[in-house]
Design goal:
The protein is α/β, with parallel strands linked by helices. The chain has 9 helices and 7 strands, in the order αααβαβαβαβαβααββ. The structure holds S-adenosylmethionine. S-adenosylmethionine binds next to helix 4.
């Protein structure tokens, strides 16, 4: 048996295993395909749901929410008493999120802030069980201390796109790639977090807040 296999093979295999009849999830994925919109996808999405349930998360703050695909997983995981706060600059994405998450019966658990994400977290304040980070990559390094101060000990700082579609491997010079590389370096060096990267799709960092 060959010991060489690719991330694409792993993704294809797991996506078949994870297939379900969740009509809202499938509609949101279809829209992402049509619009070439970057969602976290079903493999990492299931991981988000599982992590939230593992720590009994009730309060989740998302930095960069689009039309609510990652929030769909979190809103299910927190249960009826939980809250998911989302941030997004684009009004059309917020309208779509309301449509999809209402269809899923989850809109009451979700609050959208139409505001720059880190400013919204600083303004809303409070202590969170999970902070999920998916903003423009050039802004990644500035999220680390902000997340640290707004997470409870035992909470999780989860960040998407740590491989940045492979650009981190070659060290491309653009600001977004450099933002992801610098973020990863600082997060691994941070004494307030224990961090690992889950390598499905585009690399999901999971940092335990000490
Ligand atoms: C990569 S998409 C991901 C959406 C969602 N987390 C998901 O997995 O489906 C990131 C979204 O965050 C928004 N965004 C990016 N940077 C932002 C910022 N600094 N503040 C607020 N929204 C931001 C973008 O408009 C986009 O809709």
């Amino acid at each position: 048996m060959s010991e060489e296999f690719t991330l694409t093979q792993i993704d294809t295999y797991l996506q078949r295993l994870y297939a379900d009849a969740d009509s809202v999830r499938l509609e949101m994925e279809e829209l992402a395909r049509q619009r070439r919109f970057p969602i976290v996808g079903p493999l990492a999405g299931r991981h988000l749901d599982q992590l939230a349930r593992m720590i009994g998360a009730q309060r989740i703050f998302e930095l960069g929410s689009g039309y609510g695909y990652s929030a769909l997983y979190f809103a299910r995981a927190v249960g009826p008493a939980g809250q998911v706060h989302c941030t997004e600059l684009d009004a059309e994405n917020i309208r779509l999120a309301e449509m999809f998450l209402s269809e899923a019966g989850l809109w009451e658990r979700v609050t959208y802030h139409q505001e720059e994400a880190t400013a919204a977290l600083a303004r809303v304040g409070g202590t969170w069980d999970i902070i999920y980070n998916d903003i423009d990559k050039v802004g990644y390094p500035a999220t680390i201390d902000l997340a640290y101060w707004h997470l409870r000990p035992g909470g999780l700082f989860i960040t998407d796109n740590l491989f940045w579609h492979g650009r981190v491997f070659t060290g491309a010079a653009d600001a977004d790639t450099q933002g992801v590389i610098e973020f990863t370096r600082q997060l691994f060096a941070h004494s307030g977090f224990i961090t690992s990267i889950y390598p499905a799709r585009d690399g999901l960092a999971v940092a335990l807040r000490l």
